[in-house]
Write a structure and sequence with these properties.
- The protein has 192 residues and is α+β, with helices and mostly antiparallel strands.
- The protein has a single domain, classed as START domain (Alpha-D-Glucose-1,6-Bisphosphate, Chain A, domain 4).
- The protein is built from 4 helices and 8 strands.
- Strands 1, 2, 3, 4, 5, 6, 7 and 8 form an 8-stranded antiparallel beta sheet that branches.
- A hairpin with a 2-residue loop joins strand 5 and strand 6.
- Helix 2 packs across helix 4.
- The chain is globular, with a radius of gyration of 16 Å.
- The model has no long low-confidence stretch (mean pLDDT 93).
Amino acid sequence: MLTIKQPTTAATEHFLQLQRDLPFTYPHLEGTKLPDQLAGFDNDRLRIRIGRGAADFERAKMAVRAWKMFPAGWTKILPENAPLQPGTSVAMYARFLGFWWRNACRIVYVVDAPDRFGFAYGTLPGHVESGEELFLVEMAPDGVVWYVLRAFSRPRHWVARLGYPLVRLLQARFRRDSARQMQAFVHENADR
């Protein structure tokens, strides 16, 4: 769960092999589809404009497919470019205080519609939290492209419970940095 060195592919493969057949750690599968907040969880929502028009929407979809919504420098997804399919497991690493915290997640569902694209993943026993997170891009009828992040979570591991206020700050930082990452990707790739 905690390492000083940057995560390696070999260590991650072993970790994910151990998590492969384990159940999700929360009862509300696909709960990020619900319009209401889930009782007993922290419910987080972000919706931010990241572009306009079909070209920006395609770039936003490309960013989600390549997991670019994870802020470089302090987060990492392994395996890189994991396929967006229900059942795909990934390790999400977050760097804090010089340590890499390893967390296991599995894709619960994928959204692939003409005006919406994304996926939700849920936590596995190798995660300090319990819950689900949706990463979605959508193009409104007026052409505005939005990045939507919805999540519900609660501490599962004693470290997360003990450091709850800090965990909430890191979750807020993730939402902010993720939105910036998506905006930057869409705008930096506009000329390609």
